[in-house]
């Protein structure tokens, strides 16, 4: 049985499952190369916006299975607020039998997140905590989903606690709380009209930057507490956020201008990030404790966009009451394509098979012929030869920067060893070089380590595995000087643990690197330049290789270099380790 799930929110995506197993899932942005890929058709001067289906993603999934749209048995879509995804799918999806198209019961958005987070997990029962920015409108109430707790058992979910905020946004939840201050700090991907987006910020807020900047800040006890957390609810008034910002800025923001390049360097920006991150962590930890209280479960599934806050996740894992925690790799709205598909299979079709999602690599693999065609298209701009994984490990050990394109792409915002830029974590100059010269982004932003799962405890203060790079443990103090490129200013790192049976080629690479250096981890960042989606196809990978200061690209079994290229004096390999 084939079930197609479609996300019509931001980060549009599609997922195809067969008998409970994900065949393919991909975000539209990877294919149309438009960050977040909203899919709006604009009428007039933004007077009306119409959504279109992510047809590139739908076609991609169908092609991966070798089927046509009429071979699909069930179709389910979702979007937040009023939903209306089914109406859009009925109009636009060229499937003959329209009775195959279904919708979730309202309020639907958090339920879709919950299906994704729980049914992808290995748990037979669990509490499910959904926390995001904007959920569904709750019919007849004039309110919107804020965060929801579900109880999962077998293949069913029951809503046990739900909180909402008013449609006028006079009060909001954690996701919008974080967005408000991220926007004030100027962390926004610009899109569309200058007043588009949360709080009229002009695009999509970049919460990850706020999280990365927070450790540079200091506690400001004189700044008022904004979040009230009590009995499973988190309350913050929009007016209070606005007044707090104005008061803080008046007292401490002299000379700060978020529109200026490098404004993050002002201590005021760092302290705001610290304040917002700290309150978010504490609120998420309390919500997790309340989820344990009302469900009595020993395991937790965490999902919704706020579950991408890996520092808060770490506190839940380390300090919370649960024995095990599973966090879906595409915890944001891209993951609702998976949730919609699971709802179609389990709730609509009555499916029973479970296949836990152990890898975030839900994309299709590309053939040797497709890779070679992309290399030929580059002509004399590249030289290529066949190379072994051991040779690539040797290049990393020599402080070279390598693009790594292997197997199917990952869904979600993290590169997990399939579409990655890799570097030597031992070199103290690698972080700034990668940020400034290769990825053209702020130098404060940290990089993640991918570590052999069997060695993780020897390098990090782990509390279980972290396969999806969604936890931030401390780097052991005795190890920090050995891996400065992945150690953040507060001594932490956003860790990915790598299992040999989940990603054997990547595990082999790190193992070979460990043989050469004694360090069983590599620096891993997403394969993309600033402002663009992670690469999907071989052609994307070659183009980004040519447009950035990467030294090599290992794609399939081919190693690409740029003929005649000379390394700058700033290149890490020009500054050997002592």
Automatic annotation (TrEMBL):
It comes from the Bacteria. Residues 3-76, 101-341 form the Carbamoyltransferase domain. CDD domains: ASKHA_NBD_TobZ_N. Residues 393-562 form the Carbamoyltransferase C-terminal domain. SUPFAM superfamilies: Actin-like ATPase domain (SSF53067). Belongs to the NodU/CmcH family. This is Carbamoyltransferase. It comes from Streptomyces graminearus.
């Amino acid at each position: 049985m084939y079930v197609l799930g479609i996300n019509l929110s931001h980060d549009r995506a599609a997922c195809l499952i067969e008998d409970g197993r994900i065949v393919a899932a991909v975000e539209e942005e990877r294919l149309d190369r438009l960050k977040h890929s909203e899919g709006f058709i604009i009428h007039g001067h933004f007077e009306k916006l119409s959504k279109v289906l992510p047809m590139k993603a739908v076609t991609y999934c169908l092609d991966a299975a070798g089927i046509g749209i009429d071979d699909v048995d069930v179709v389910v879509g979702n979007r937040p607020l009023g939903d209306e995804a089914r109406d859009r799918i009925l109009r636009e999806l060229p499937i003959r039998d329209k009775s195959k198209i279904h919708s979730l019961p309202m309020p639907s958005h958090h339920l879709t997140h919950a299906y994704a987070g729980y049914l992808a997990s290995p748990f037979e029962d669990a509490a499910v905590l959904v926390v995001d920015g904007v959920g569904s409108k709750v019919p007849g109430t004039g309110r919107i989903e804020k965060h929801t707790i579900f109880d999962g058992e077998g293949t069913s979910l029951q809503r046990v606690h739900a909180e909402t905020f008013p449609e006028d946004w006079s009060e909001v939840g954690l996701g919008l709380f974080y967005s408000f201050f991220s926007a004030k700090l100027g962390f926004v991907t610009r899109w569309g009209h200058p007043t588009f987006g949360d709080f009229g910020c002009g695009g999509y807020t970049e919460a990850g930057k706020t999280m990365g900047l927070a450790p540079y800040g200091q506690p400001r006890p004189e700044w008022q507490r904004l979040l009230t957390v009590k009995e499973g609810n988190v309350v913050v008034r929009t007016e209070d956020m606005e007044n707090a910002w104005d008061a803080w800025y008046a007292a401490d923001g002299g000379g700060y201008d978020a529109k200026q390049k490098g404004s993050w360097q002002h201590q005021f920006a760092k302290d705001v990030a610290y304040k917002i991150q700290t309150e978010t962590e504490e609120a998420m930890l309390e919500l997790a404790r309340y989820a344990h209280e009302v469900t009595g479960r020993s395991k937790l599934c965490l999902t919704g966009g706020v579950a991408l806050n890996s520092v808060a996740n770490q506190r839940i894992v380390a300090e919370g009451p649960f024995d095990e925690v599973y966090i879906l790799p595409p915890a944001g709205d891209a993951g609702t394509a998976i949730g919609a598909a699971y709802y179609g299979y389990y709730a609509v079709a009555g499916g029973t098979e479970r296949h836990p999602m152990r890898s975030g690599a839900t994309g299709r693999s590309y053939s040797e012929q497709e890779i070679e065609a992309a290399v030929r298209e580059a002509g004399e701009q590249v030289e290529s030869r066949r190379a072994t994984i051991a040779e690539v490990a040797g290049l990393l050990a020599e402080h070279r920067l390598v693009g790594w394109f292997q197997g199917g792409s990952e869904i979600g915002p993290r590169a997990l060893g399939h579409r990655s830029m890799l570097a030597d974590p031992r070199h103290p100059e690698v972080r700034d070089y990668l940020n400034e010269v290769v990825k053209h982004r702020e130098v404060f932003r940290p990089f993640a380590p991918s570590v052999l799962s069997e060695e993780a405890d020897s390098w990090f203060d782990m509390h279980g595995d972290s396969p999806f790079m969604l936890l931030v443990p401390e780097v052991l103090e005795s190890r920090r000087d050995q891996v400065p490129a992945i150690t953040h200013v507060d001594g932490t790192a956003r860790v990915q643990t790598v299992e040999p049976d989940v990603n054997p080629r990547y595990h082999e690479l790190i193992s070979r690197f460990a043989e050469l250096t004694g360090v069983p981890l590599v620096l891993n960042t997403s394969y993309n330049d600033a402002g663009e989606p992670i690469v999907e196809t071989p052609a994307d990978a070659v183009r980004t290789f040519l447009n950035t200061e990467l030294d090599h690209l290992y794609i399939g079994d081919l190693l690409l270099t740029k003929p005649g290229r000379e390394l700058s004096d700033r290149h890490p390999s020009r500054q050997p380790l002592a």
